[in-house]
Amino acid sequence: MDCHTFFDPQSVAVVGASRHKGKVGHEILAGLIRGGYEGKIFPVNPNAAELAGLPCYPDLKSIGQVPDLAVVAVPARAVPAVIEDCAALEVQSVIIVTAGFREIGGPGEDLEGAVARIARNAGIRVLGPNCLGLMVPTNKLNASFAADLPAPGDIGYFSQSGSLLAAILDMANSEGIGFSKLVSIGNKADIDELEVIEALAEDPETRVIAGYLENIADGEAFLRAAEEISRRKPILLMKSGETGAGAEAASSHTGALAREAAFECVFERAGVIRCHSVKTQFDFARALATQPLPAGPRVAVIANGGGPSIMAADAVERSGLELAELDDDATAKLAARLPPTACVRNPMDVLGDALADRYDVALRAMLDCPTVDVVLVMLTPHAMTQCVETAQVVVDAAKENPGKPILASFIGGRRIERATEVLRQGGVPHYDSPETAVLTIKIMAEYARWRARPPRVVKLFSVNRRKVEQVIERHLRQGVAEIGEMEGKAVLEAYGFATPRGSVATSGEQAANLAGQIGFPVVLKIWSPHILHKSEVGGVKCGLNNPREVMDAFDLMMYRIPKRVPQADILGVLVEEMITSRQEVVLGTTRDPRFGPLMMFGMGDVMVEVLRDVAFYLAPLTADEAKQMLLKTRTYRLLQGRPGQEGVDIDAIAEGLQRLSQLVTEFPEIQEMDINPFMVGPEGTTPIAVDARILLKR
Amino acid sequence: MDCHTFFDPQSVAVVGASRHKGKVGHEILAGLIRGGYEGKIFPVNPNAAELAGLPCYPDLKSIGQVPDLAVVAVPARAVPAVIEDCAALEVQSVIIVTAGFREIGGPGEDLEGAVARIARNAGIRVLGPNCLGLMVPTNKLNASFAADLPAPGDIGYFSQSGSLLAAILDMANSEGIGFSKLVSIGNKADIDELEVIEALAEDPETRVIAGYLENIADGEAFLRAAEEISRRKPILLMKSGETGAGAEAASSHTGALAREAAFECVFERAGVIRCHSVKTQFDFARALATQPLPAGPRVAVIANGGGPSIMAADAVERSGLELAELDDDATAKLAARLPPTACVRNPMDVLGDALADRYDVALRAMLDCPTVDVVLVMLTPHAMTQCVETAQVVVDAAKENPGKPILASFIGGRRIERATEVLRQGGVPHYDSPETAVLTIKIMAEYARWRARPPRVVKLFSVNRRKVEQVIERHLRQGVAEIGEMEGKAVLEAYGFATPRGSVATSGEQAANLAGQIGFPVVLKIWSPHILHKSEVGGVKCGLNNPREVMDAFDLMMYRIPKRVPQADILGVLVEEMITSRQEVVLGTTRDPRFGPLMMFGMGDVMVEVLRDVAFYLAPLTADEAKQMLLKTRTYRLLQGRPGQEGVDIDAIAEGLQRLSQLVTEFPEIQEMDINPFMVGPEGTTPIAVDARILLKR
């Protein structure tokens, strides 16, 4: 989208402007004028000569000049003709607020398609349809029918729900929250959320990008762009429809997505901060827009009472942050300057009779202390408490210490009203409970850690790519989607996985000899390109302990299986080493339709089945991401070993995940793949990929 | 505490009343007068003849009559003499607001002890010291130095933190939240939280009891009383100091408790609703004070926009509540009366152009629908939205449907201000986000389920109590705290636990013969009253498969153990059936210093060690509570079985827990006890208590 004509147009045409109050075309024109827009305004309506004191034009070309921006509010069926007019006139940017397009299905979808085609052919960029429009407070541009312009501010907001945007505006207006840009993206016929996010990323007025989404147009592009932008500006997203019921409501609302699990991975990888309510989104945004990021998780708390300081300390602990340990210097300063009854430590209780000066001493000592990463200032209004003066102390300290974040939570009502206004104007975010402030600190600390993470380096292993190409090509040529064990093993080996030792035998004696070379116990598996599910036909026999058992098993398979599967060519029997006394884990991958391959790690057997203890992440994986996947499982400690049981080689599992990640990244033809079990031993041993299931895209 | 003299005194003496603004004695007197108290007020101060227009008395006895209530604000060292005066005059009820007692440690503790003694001997009931006092809005009684009287209301509030109470008052005053009683309990030298809760339970003005606690004076009494009261009135508690850091702050603040895990069980058993912030406490209280309890978890949502309705649906799903399925009748009604573009289902989107009448139709259809347990009404202010009229529709519907709860979440700022005021005055609780409303509904539904639970019936098993008495008496007499395996087995059997079959052998041949009778494999264990930890001395040998192995193991023990433990009398070797191929679980109990025995259930071995997958509950257990403990573990599904593995006898485990619960309830001498492993088999089999560790109180 062109930021110039959308956010700072020199002239705006309102097509479908109306004199009738309550009509969208009226509200937009009135809003533009009321907002104090200083460019030219051209009302367009064939039935009026003048509207709101401005000359009115029968159509766009009658204006006699090309408006930078056209806002279209005519009925849906008339929209294509208006866009044709825009094309003829070479208008660059259009907002279609009219509803009645894709969101009503059937004919609406066709109409939207037609409009999009006309616009695309003419090179016109379109916001909407079915949107509220947009607002740019610093340019006094209210090209919307949402509400009055909010105060200018640091937050750039976009929303896929007009209803929600209207509510947010009303809320923000009464709480004094300001915005740089507000964009209602509607049906996204042309401009989608990603273009808006990119525009806000480049916008110097925007410090924090926030938005509400129901679906994402292009998953991989979103991931790439969001990851890059999050390094510079925080992105706060509400994404609805992630649970079953919400997904159902969302899908019929704007045709949104079914599988939501992948979003968590996408947001995590891209550093996007996910919010579950408007309130928390603005709680986080206010801090991110005004405060620096904390260098670490160590929180200092100042309060003028025991109860509130304990509550804050509890909240810090519950959140996984840390209560900072004050260093000797800070302790000495506090002990020297505070009354002897104030117990010097963190949380710091400056006592109920504290005036603003005592807060000043405590706050400055905390800010100077190198073991403190962030300070939370709490206040409850006692009889003598100087609420406003204390707020001013906090604001001044924040100004003088621009490198360390300060958040405030004054608890009360009327008595703290003016104080919280002082905090707001001074750029110190204020929260109505310590829990909310602490949650915000946690989000800030996590985002800071994300920003500080080392560059992602995906290791490329040297592999035999050609071999896998051959296997996949042959399967696709023959229209076979599932790759069987024989060739699955070849694929695994081509990508550096060790598989159980084994060879094919064509007689019982040969099988027994091979077993002797491999070492007992062994497994026998029927070897046929036509039998994929060997167990089901009696084609697998485990735990054979001596030559006699091997020969018996061989003969039984040769006798029984041809009767069960007469059409199968049987090439012999695979004699394979039996892997025991190792930890079983599962490595897997499945291709998400929006975000590409999603990697899966799970503890073997019971842990996956019963506990559903699995972790996901997006391919391609770095070594660190692979290890983080292991750490995310609840049963991670099983891998570390414990008294009487040696731990397993964690790095070897991570490497397995990375190799699998490389395989599915290099072969988009692979739809799903599991290595199960992947048997891992103590450090230094090579894990064995015992079995693999590979499913190709049809 | 005497409700008459504390909550509705006919006369109040203010001892230590002062003319100096800022002094506590001044604030209390001024507050009483400003609040409009209609009884007699007696200022007491030897240095004034008149205060605030009232005659002032040099001491209590000079008043010439006995005040119902004395509020004491003299310096700490002068308090004992004042209480002596109260005793002489037979004043019944006293509030000591003065600080400088137990909370400052050392001499303060002694002073508090002295005051408590004087009061107890004279039969005087004391609130405080170190408290803010109390407030009763309906009686215009402000016997505190906290703030001005709040509005009368349904919430009875008490707080152990004066600082927090002051903040709550200020907040409530500006949000129009009313109170029936407000009690600052301070150091609890005499009256504790339980007496206050009991007084509020009896108070007809109080519909909801809420409070903030840092410790609990008498755990078992609290549990008993709270459980009884919760059946009639909801109790909402903030209990701080539950996490490590909070506990540390709390412990030096008012000497509070270390182990907090038990509180969760206590609150659950007693139906107490635990809150983690002031905000959520009042969010819940407002709904519980104004709305009926929901009959079930099925929520209907009405909104005038897709985004908000999806957000609410997501919140319902995330919370574990259900989205109600509308019945045919409701669906037909809605389809007939709403515009065709409004899609009839739950969440119900009445569309952005909905006026109040459309809400009326939707809300009444939902309220009439028997599959709906609770309705959440959302609104975002669009251009034509009738915010106030819609609020009135909701209020009217709530009045006409007193049996089904309605909550509202209007999202916005100025445009919804008047509407939310209409809701508040109409007794419909309003929430600034659907998430908060849904969380409140969840709390209501859980509390309703608690209230509807069947009476608790603890089954008493027929046991051999005498046998256990003998074992315990002998150990206590001998000063031995740990009961060894021999007698542990006797204790288990006395309480109906099956133990492995086995007998003691004194020769290798006898051992081999016994093993043959029991059936191989067997376990051999050295049999000596002096050896508690058999494995450590080589006194346990498992998995013996034939007579030869049994004889070898016997002889090795006889040869080696006397060398290692020369002082032990060795009576022989226990030959025991070896229990295999069953599921191992752990039953345990530990005595909490405040709440008595806490029962523990855990999955055996890895699950307990690695996953810390254990569940706790208070003894004595009912059958249902025992089963709930199993259900609470994350690995419960392991017990249910799965393809290829039969489930185990759940009831048998529950019975084991109940028997253990009976044992520790009947023997307070038992400090800790584990049955580990407790081996359980398929339904119908008897579980075996393989080993037990019993620790007596020293």
Q: How would you briefly describe this protein structure?
A:
Chain A is built from 24 helices and 30 strands. With 698 residues, the first copy, chain A, is α/β, with parallel strands linked by helices.
Report what the structure shows.
Two copies of one chain form a homodimer. The longest helix of chain A is centred in the middle third of the chain and has 19 residues, at 434-452. Chain A has four domains: 3-287, Succinyl-CoA synthetase domains (Rossmann fold, 3-Layer(aba) Sandwich), CATH 3.40.50; 292-452, Succinyl-CoA synthetase domains (Rossmann fold, 3-Layer(aba) Sandwich), CATH 3.40.50.261; 465-577, Dna Ligase, domain 1 (2-Layer Sandwich); 583-696, ATP-grasp fold, B domain (D-amino Acid Aminotransferase, Chain A, domain 1, 2-Layer Sandwich). The first copy, chain A, has a seven-stranded mixed β-sheet, with helices on both faces. In chain A, strands 20, 25, 26, 27, 28, 29 and 30 form a seven-stranded antiparallel β-sheet that branches. In chain A, strands 2-1-5-6-7 form a five-stranded parallel β-sheet, with helices on both faces. With 698 residues, the first copy, chain A, is of the alpha/beta class. Chain A is flat. Chain A starts with a helix and ends with a strand. Chain A is built from 24 helices and 30 strands. In chain A, 53% of the residues are buried. Helix content of chain A is 41%, strand content 21%. At the A-B interface, helix 5, helix 8, helix 11, helix 15 and helix 16 of A face helix 5, helix 8, helix 11, helix 15 and helix 16 of B.
